[in-house]
Design a protein that fits this description.
Layout (H helix, E strand, L loop, with lengths): L2 H11 L6 E5 L3 H12 L3 E7 L8 H8 L6 E3 L1 E9 L1 E9 L12 E4 L2 E4 L8 H5 L37 H19 L10 E5 L3 E5 L2 E2 L7 E8 L3 E10 L2 E11 L5 E6 L9 E7 L2
Helix pairs in contact: 2-3
Length: about 280
């Protein structure tokens, strides 16, 4: 079952999923459940992660795995499920750079439960029902600087827009969407076809918002984005129509941790231009 379902069973219904547990995927809920299951008396035998790096926050790796001596198997995945009626064992294997299992690397674990923590997707069923176009990179809606979707008067925020690390980010985004909706009802949001397109460059997975209408920006605009892979000791480059407008030294960036960047309005010189963010070693 998913780590989220196991969490619900434990927190709301008072049921523990099993006593000998293995977790596939190092998402934050899976890491948190590794600790929680251990505290509830279960034995968590390990966590396997397909990628060569964890997809959870660094603090969760430290507090939920390292503190409880739960091993993390990077570049591994489950390749065999064993059991009849109830799970009895699993087999994991190391994978190569193309994610193909490597023969001879199999490891068997006798378990009664396998929890899946293999990523979240935004709860965007409502967007599908009203035919709002999704951003293929975030699986949420395309929004502008006001959190407004491509359908005027409909706003998106939180986990309907993109997956967040912390509830604080969801709260702040919700406030912005709510304030923008109020402005829309009062006729204070200016509708215009002029818009800066936000383009994720080298190493960047996505940027929210997808476009910026300068007439609705007061002093600055906040960009949220994620990198595609771990980076260490690199530069974050922001360009306006190809010209560098900001250059920021970053000691480390991880796909599991959302990055936030504030750009002053005065730097956005072309209301119909392209704003890009990219990672560079120079």
């Amino acid at each position: 079952m998913t780590a989220g379902i196991a969490q619900r069973y434990l927190n709301i219904d008072g049921y523990i999923a099993g006593k000998k547990v293995f977790i596939l995927g190092s998402g934050d809920i899976g890491l948190i459940m590794a600790r929680r299951m251990t505290l509830e008396g279960a034995k968590v035998l390990g966590v396997a992660e397909l990628m060569p790096y964890s997809n959870g926050l660094s603090r969760n790796i430290a507090q939920c795995l390292n503190d409880f001596n739960i091993p993390l198997y990077l570049s591994h995945t489950v390749t065999k499920i064993i059991g009849k009626g109830r799970l009895e064992a699993i087999e994991i294997s190391q994978v190569d750079e193309k994610f193909n299992p490597i023969a001879g690397t199999e490891k068997r674990f006798d378990v009664d439960t396998l929890l899946l923590s293999i990523g979240l997707v935004p709860a965007n069923e409502l967007l599908d029902d009203i035919n709002i176009k999704n951003n293929p990179r975030t699986r949420g809606a395309f929004v502008n600087e006001s959190m407004e979707t491509e359908v005027p008067g409909i706003f998106s925020c939180g986990n309907v827009l993109h997956v967040h690390d912390l509830v604080d980010f969801v709260t702040n985004e919700g406030r912005k969407a709510g304030n923008s909706a109020a402005k829309y009802l009062k006729g204070a949001l200016i509708e215009t076809s002029d818009a800066i397109i936000c383009n994720p460059g080298n190493g960047i997975g996505y940027i929210v918002p997808g476009k910026i209408r300068l007439v609705n920006v007061d002093m600055s605009v906040k960009l949220n984005f994620r990198v595609r892979q771990p980076f260490h000791d690199v530069w974050l480059i922001v360009k306006m129509d190809g010209a560098v407008i900001r250059k920021i030294k970053k000691p480390h960036m991880l796909p599991a941790e959302m990055e936030t960047l504030e750009i002053k309005k005065e730097l956005l010189t072309n209301p119909n231009g392209v704003l890009s963010v990219e990672v560079s070693n120079e």
